[in-house]
Design brief:
about 325 residues, alpha+beta, Arc Repressor Mutant, subunit A, Beta Polymerase, domain 2, 3-stranded antiparallel β-sheet, about 55% helix, about 10% strand, globular
Length: about 325
Amino acid sequence: MRPPTKQQDPIEAPLNTILGTASNVRVLRVLTGIGSAIGRSEVARKAALYPTGVRKVLDRLAELGLVDVIGSGRNKAVHLRERHPLTEPLRALFDSERALYNRIILAARNTVAHGMASAKAIWVENPASRSPGTIDIGVLGPPDEIDALIQMVEKNLREIEHDVALHFIVHGYTDADLHAASPEQGRRLEEITLLYGWIPFRWRMNGGGPVRSHQDLDKRARHIATRIAGLLTTDPSLIERALEWLEERHRRAGTHEQHTIEEWKSILSQLSIPQIQSFLTEESERANRLRQSMPFVDTLSETERSFVMDVSEDDQG
């Protein structure tokens, strides 16, 4: 795109600067979705941006009078300046964006449920792999029925494509596909939004490589849980982050997944840190089951995630 032929007055057209980059939009999306001050590193985590870039965005928004900064040094927190004349319009804009996405998901969820008795799960895949105007849908089913399920999901979704102005692309999976997911496939299967059924998140524990057995997955999940238990000793805030993630996930989850989310919420809100650490590493049927859907994994920083997920075969014994 060629540069503008004429600069516009920043007083007359402040949105050019406020919404001028994708990073600005991501940061504002975070700030408009909360009602209290938040640390800059937490803004970076929620916006999925590097902290250095987020600090520059926040400094610029503060210069424009849209963001207030509280504290000093590493303890700085930020929030939208409520008295700024554009704060409420911006909040309404992002609220509308969230509502639109929820309407799309609700329409898809209501549509795909018809005639899906043999499907184990249907979900919306990671938007990072999405082309403009399309939504990737995953369906999990038995090997001998997966082709028919794909056709049925495609047929059901065609009914709403015109209403939501989007094209749905359906990908079929079997249990074996998930367990042998490549790193590229694994990235597409991150941050899914469940539409129907229940998917055991065992495939997320294999690091994008082939897995020999359920026993291997259980063992790997326990070692990941052991490392998370260690992180809780130095950073108890992981519990609040996990509870916040569970609350957000609950709004997008199917009925079966909601039961698991409620179990985790009960554990994290009622048990002490030592009790949570003990549960994460204990050998019991319930602990083995819940370790396949640990809420901590999705709240970790890149450094924490690398440490937690880098469990070698030697470590697993």
